[in-house]
Design brief:
about 180 residues, about 80% helix, Protein Binding, DinI Protein, Chain A, mainly alpha, 5 helices, 2 strands
Length: about 180
């Protein structure tokens, strides 16, 4: 009988705890924000993509030109292999090998530099997004704004579009 009484009292305590938690949260203002959407659609994101494209366009074009030179030299080697002297043939092969090495080295440096710059721009964007979330939370007196890892969020608590509007406002004002 004592075990049964203890089990019932545990259930009673659990039920009381659950009700008290739900009452505690009843007056709270909670929202959800889709940060992925913000990072894709914010004007700051588009500006960063444009900036990076302009910054790396010259190097990208140089890589494409080097690839074309390698392709042209390879075609020449295949076409003229029979009529070239062994010295010329070896010289052309070395030239192609050196160009391929240069291309691989330049590609690797390009990727590394681009990755570093993308991370820098992403960090700036994330700071901007977090500042906008904080601004909206303070203006509209939210107690809690949650983000990723949410299984479901109703449209009533989704403040993503408000945050996006704040980011657009912030972008236009030049912050």
């Amino acid at each position: 009988m004592t075990k049964k009484l203890m089990a019932q009292s545990r259930w009673l305590i659990l039920i009381i705890c659950l009700f008290s938690v739900s009452f505690a949260w009843a007056g709270q203002k909670i929202a959800f924000v889709n940060q992925t959407k913000l990072l894709q659609k914010a004007p700051q994101a588009e500006a960063a993509r444009s900036k990076l494209q302009k910054e790396f366009a010259k190097r990208d074009k140089a890589l494409v030109n080097l690839q074309k030179k390698i392709q042209s030299s390879t075609e020449k080697l295949q076409k003229d292999a029979a009529i070239l002297s062994s010295t010329e043939l070896n010289k052309l092969k070395r030239k192609i090998t050196m160009m391929r090495r240069d291309l691989e080295r330049d590609k690797a440096a390009f990727k590394e530099d681009l990755s570093i710059r993308q991370n820098e721009e992403l960090l700036k964007l994330q700071k901007s997004v977090l500042q906008s979330i904080k601004t909206i939370a303070e203006q509209e007196k939210y107690d809690l704004i949650i983000s990723e890892g949410v299984i479901y969020a109703s449209k009533q608590i989704d403040v993503t579009d408000k945050i996006l509007a704040q980011l657009k406002k912030q972008y236009r004002s030049g912050k």
